[in-house]
Every structure is written in C-alpha cells, then in structure tokens.
Amino acid sequence: MAVLSGAAVPLLLLGVLGGVGAVLKPHVLLQAEFYQRSEGPDKAWAQFGFHFDADELFHVELDAAQTVWRLPEFGRFASFEAQGALQNMAVGKQNLEVMIGNSNRSQQDFVTPELALFPAEAVSLEEPNVLICYADKFWPPVATVEWRRNGAVVSEGVYDSVYYGRPDLLFRKFSYLPFVPQRGDVYSRAVRHWGAKGPVQRMWEPEVPEPPSESSATLWCAVGLAVGIAGIAAGTALILRAVRRNAANRQPGLL
Q1: Could you give the dihedral angle defined by the CA atoms of residues 155, 156, 162 and 168, in that order, rounded to the nearest 10 degrees?
Q2: What's the burial of 211, exposed, middle or buried (CB within 10 Å: 0-12/13-18/19+)?
Q3: N or C: which end of the chain has fewer CB within 10 A?
Q4: What is the pLDDT of residues 90-130, one digit of tens each?
Q5: 129: burial class by Cβ within 10 Å (0-12, 13-18, 19+)?
C-alpha cells in the first residue's frame, strides 16, 4: 500500500531567440514524496525530494534527517530544513493507515523493471569510465540492486539515484559504477523487485579491438619495406634521367 503526493509549480522563463523575438519556455519545480509499507511484515519505504524538469535537486535522507543535494553546488545557493520532510512523512503514514482501515482493497499488479546497461563514455582500456544501469517502468518503487565484476560483488564508489516518477505513475532509477576497463572483465547488474521471481540481470563487458598479431605486424612491416624500396628505386631512376638530360643540353653547338 502506498500514498503518493506531489506539488508542481509551473515556472515561465523568458528566452530570446535571434531574429525570432521573445518566447515563453515552461519549467516545472516538483515536490515529490511517497510513503508505502508491505502487507505482511511491517516494513515501510518513503522518499521526499524536489525535482526541476524531472532532474533531482535534492532529497532528504529520512533516517539521518539530512538534506542531500544532487550536486554540492546547489547547497551554496539554497537550503532546505529536513525536519519538514519528516513531518510530511508522518502525515503520509497516518493517511495511509486511515485509507487502509476504510477501504476494501486488493493488491495492484506489480510491474517488473526494464534494464539497460551502458558506459558513460566511449570505452578505452585503462581509461577511467562510469558504467550506468538504468531501471525503467517499474512499480512499486522498491528495488534492491547489486553490481558484480567477474562474479564478485562491487560496492566501492557506487551511487544510486532516488526513484524518479513517470507520467504513467511508474518509476525509474539510475545506478552508477566507476570503473577502469580491463580486457576480459565482465560486469553485471542484478535488480531484485517484487514483480520478478528472481533477480533481473544484465551483463556487460568492454568491447575493444584486439591487438594485432605478430604475423599481421610482420606482414605490414614487409609491405612497408617493399613500398619504401620501390620508392627509392623510382626516385633514383628519375634522378639519373634528369642528370642525363642536363648533360645533353650542355653540349656545345657546331661553329
């Protein structure tokens, strides 16, 4: 069972396009929150945050009562008191319990996430990169995620985004893993969700060209040497021909 709420504030920003004039570009500042708990064991999940045009500005770590800005620079220009989010969660919990007590409810169908796994930049061996897992179109917003490298669990440097809402009332989420590509490495991302009987997995390994073999290198060296010798021979012939022409032109004429 879940209670979802949000308040969207439309903003109009004035932009000027050369030769066109002034245009109004709409933007949305969204306060998004939810509170939910399982039917069986008394376990609850909640989230509170602000988004701008579907991008996170900040969220509140409810257990630590701390505001976490998506980028540290945001916190230099604004502030948010985490206690306000805790009060909202208390209201959400109370409203949910009232709704449960007053309703003849049934379980909504779960929607299993769709996963995509891809690097942030073009892959080069030994060059630092970031592997991104994108989970999309799932409900409810409860998922446990796990990264593995060559079968071993990896947690260092991992960053998981908050849950982002979608217009169709489903959710999406990102996870980021910093890594240094090595030939032969295999990465996997497993997402456990109520809608799946087991973990939903995706595999990824660096796709980099194989180094040239010794025979290929020898062949290219031989071809290069042959081309060089042919060039030298052709150049020598042209020089000798030019010398002979110059000598013939210098012979004195008859008196």
Answers
A1: -50
A2: exposed
A3: C
A4: 999 999 889 888 888 777 789 999 999 999 999 999 999 99
A5: middle
Q: Please, what are the domains in the chain? A: 2-102 (3.10.320.10), 114-204 (2.60.40.10)
Residue 149 · residue 179 · CB < 8 Å: yes
Inter-residue contact 169 to 139 (CB < 8 Å): yes
pTM for the full model?
0.70
Q: Note the pLDDT tens digit of each residue in 144-166.
A: 889 999 999 999 999 999 999 88
B/e letters for 90-111, b = 16+ CB within 10 Å, e = fewer, are eebbeebeeeeeeeeeeeeeeb
pLDDT at site 131: 96
Q: What residue ranges in 20-163 does DSSP mark as E strands?
A: 21-37, 44-52, 55-61, 66-69, 114-119, 129-138, 143-149, 152-154, 159-160
